[in-house]
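Appendix B.2, paired examples.
Example (i):
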Amino acid sequence: MRVHGGQLSQNLGHAAELIAEAAGRGADLALLPEALDLGWTHPDARNHATTIPDGEACAALARAARQHRIFVCAGMTEKDGDRTYNAAVIIDRDGEVILRYRKLNELEIGHASYDQGDRLGVCHTELGTLGLMICADGFASGLVLGRTLGHMGADIILSPSAWAVPPGHDQVREPYGRIWRDSYIPVCREFSLWIAAVSNVGPIVAGPWEGRDCIGCSLVIDPQGEEILRGPYGADAETILYTEVQPLERPARGCGWQEMDFKREVPRR
């Protein structure tokens, strides 16, 4: 999706158009990028963020989900009291927010724009168990956030993102995407799950990365760690990508404590 920095109404209207197109072609879930309302780290973040679920951004996406009977996952800028979050939601076919997440592993240059989240979550749906993270969460130390979602039972991890390159980036010499494949593939293989990550496109017009371009290259990695879908590269490379995702039957994961006998008496000292 092309995101125009600071242009809330324009971005929400365009998101609704893309959701309608995807639903019209049979999609069950539409995954949109990080901070699609204002653009990542745009200076308007703290002044123009809206609430979840009733604020302008979330309400617009919920209407589109309800109208087209489609699940929607999207990143947006959330206001909660005096705090502002780089957030994402999963909305069901009825337009209800069934999972809200606030980014944990924000880049240092994003700290002036956003407060830090404090929890992970999954939601259980007809499509499988969905986990949610945002962009740089994927390469947190030890891949801990993706792995935790795996331990929480996620069949599919959805990751709204905003992937950007500096001016003059040479895609031929340095093809974009290795950092994400190196982060996603181990988690997919270890937990037999899918990861789908969608980046926006377009120039970053304000904020700490002003002058960079967001360049798409969205990815889907399957439970064998194979890249099955990759978006085109470029600031003008807006497109809708389609793929089928089939969650695998997996044994429950855990530390084995459920096999211990907690009813036995513990000797007193």
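Example (ii):
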Amino acid sequence: MEGVIHIPAGERGVIRLFALDMRPEQAAFLKEPGALAQVLGIAALDMDQVEIFPVSDLEDIGLVGYLSEGCGVPRAQVEQDRELLQGLEGYVLLIRSRAFDDVETRLTPADQIMLQGTYGERQTNWNAAPASAESAKPYSAPKLSPRQARAQARRIGATLFALVMALIALAVWALVF
């Protein structure tokens, strides 16, 4: 099973870079619905998570800069493949792991599509110290007595009623005068 690329279910934050050894017309055709999925040997692919472009479009920034600055790949990962990335010419294909809709997938790319590298996007650190303030605890607000709660509800209702009546009176006055 040489040439098979395994994508595990639920994979997140991975970008795969492929070199496309094909004419520009063929590379452009891969953007058509279903074409890329077919040459990768799979049923479907989210094309919003796929990029196909000539390396020459990147001009001065190059693939190294595009991956690190444009795609959020840590610079250290990209530096390891700097020579390879700078040597790529023609068209390339970038596929983010979200393109596979969290489903386990096995890619069997055509001979003209060669995997050049797999890169991980920067991950956000969602860790935080637990909230320790007394006011952060559930049900820590002072509880109103039933009588106070009813009185507050009546005040809010009376205020809304007065506001609506004032708007109606203003509208009637505007129509009459």
